[in-house]
Design goal:
Number of helices: 4
Number of strands: 9
CATH superfamily of the largest domain: F0F1 ATP synthase delta/epsilon subunit, N-terminal
Helix content: 25-40%
Low-confidence stretches: 10-16
Structural class: alpha+beta
Mean pLDDT: 81
CATH architecture of the largest domain: Sandwich
CATH class of the largest domain: Mainly Beta
Number of domains: 2
Radius of gyration: 25 Å
Distance between the termini: 78 Å
């Protein structure tokens, strides 16, 4: 149930907010998300901008950043885009991104990379106690050298 009066009873721009806007977010790998939204905020090439229903037609480039989507009766959604283009029509927005990841996928990807990095052979070699001792000794010797003190 909406607490807003019917769109016909609202004046001007307030009526526009009550209307839904169809949004599609597409990347080279396929459709990332589509649905009805109240508002969408995009990282334009000339700066961040928002779109509501009945927005004037627009073609724009996108820079790297987060697209914030505010679906009707759902929590906000954030999608990372590496760049691309957006087409805005009065009742529809199509985001064509080079690369796009939903925020929950981005968090999962970061966690996977962290796990892989921690288990990599080089990470294991760098955390070896003997390697840590050598690095500590080299750091101490370099500190002594910078201070002009003898080191042994």
């Amino acid at each position: 149930m909406s607490s807003l009066p019917p769109a016909s009873a609202l004046p001007g721009i307030v009526a526009d907010v009550a209307e839904a806007l169809a949004v599609q977010i597409i990347s080279l790998t396929g459709e990332i998300w589509s649905g009805e939204v109240r508002e969408i905020s995009l990282p334009g090439g000339e700066g961040r901008f928002g779109v509501l229903a009945r927005h004037a037609p627009l073609l724009a480039t996108l820079r790297e950043g987060m697209v914030s989507v505010f679906p009707v009766n759902e929590p906000p959604l954030h999608v990372y885009v590496s760049g691309g283009h957006v087409e805005v029509q009065p009742g529809r927005v199509i985001v064509l991104a080079d690369l796009a990841l939903r925020s929950e996928d981005l968090d999962e990807a970061r966690a996977r990379v962290a796990r892989e990095t921690a288990s990599a052979p080089m990470a294991a070699a760098l955390t070896d106690p003997d390697t840590a001792k050598v690095h500590a000794e080299l750091a101490w010797a370099r500190g002594q050298q910078l201070r002009g003190l003898p080191f042994k």
